[in-house]
Amino acid sequence: MPIETVQKGKLRKELNIPDNMKIIGNVARLDRPKNPMRFLEIAEKVLKERNDVVFVWIGGNVVEDYYAKQVEQYLSEKPLLKEKVKVLGFRKDATELMSDFDLFLLTSDDEGMPLVILEAQQLGIPVVSTDVGCVSEMDAIVLSNDNATEKIRKALLNDFRYTNNTVSDLQSFIKRYVGLYK
C-alpha cells in the first residue's frame, strides 16, 4: 500500500487504544540484532514515569522462537508491561498499523540503512533510535541506554511530526550519504 494512501486508526481500533494514549512502536523481526529486550527495558522505564503510553512491536521471529519466548517470559513477569506492551507478530498491514504510532522506537544493535525509519518519517512519525548504521544521517533522535527515557519524553512533549516538507527525500539523503565518503 503506498504510504500516501495509508489510513490512520486501524491499530488503535484493533487494540482498543484511546486517542489520548501515545503509541510508541517498532516494526522489526524478533531477533538479536533488533534487540527486542532493549525495547522492553525502555518501555519499562518510560511506563514507570507515565501511564499515557502503550508500546507496540510489530514483527515476529524468522528462524527460531528464542527471542519470542524471551519477550513472552519478560512480559509475563512484569504485570505493568503485560498490560501496556503489545507484540503483534508479522503483519502484512504493518505500514498501515504503524501510521498510528506517535513515536517510532528503533532499538537495534546492528543495522545498515533501516528503511523502516524512512517509512516512519514519510508517515510523519518522529524517530528515536540507537546509533546504528546511518541512523544519525536520517534525521532521527539518537539515544543511548542512559538517556532513552529522556529522549522519548522530549520527543513526546514536543509533539513533533514530520511533514512532507521536513522529511528527507531520497535525493537529499543520497547526497548527504555520498558526502560522507568524499
Short structural summary:
With 182 residues, the protein is an alpha/beta fold. The protein has helices spanning 10-15, 36-49, 66-77, 79-84, 94-98, 115-122, 148-158, 170-179; strands at 22-27, 53-58, 85-89, 103-106, 127-130, 141-143. The protein is globular and about 50 Å long.
**Number of separate helices:** 8
CATH architecture: 3-Layer(aba) Sandwich
Query: How much is the radius of gyration in Å?
Result: 16 Å
Going by helix content, strand content and strand pairing, the class is alpha/beta
The count of β-strands is: 6
Overall structural domain count? 1
What's the quaternary structure here?
single chain
Order of neighbouring strands in the sheet with most strands: 3-2-1-4-5-6
CATH class: Alpha Beta
Can you tell me the residue ranges where pLDDT is under 50 for at least 5 consecutive residues?
A: 163-168
Share of helical residues: 25-40%
Average the pLDDT over all residues and give the rounded result.
84
Listing every helix as H and every strand as E from the N terminus to the C terminus, the arrangement reads: HEHEHHEHEHEEHH
Question: How much of the residues is beta strand, in percent?
Answer: 15-25%
- What is the fourth-level CATH superfamily? Glycogen Phosphorylase B
Task: Report the principal-axis shape.
Answer: globular
CATH fold descriptor: Rossmann fold
Ends distance: 36 Å
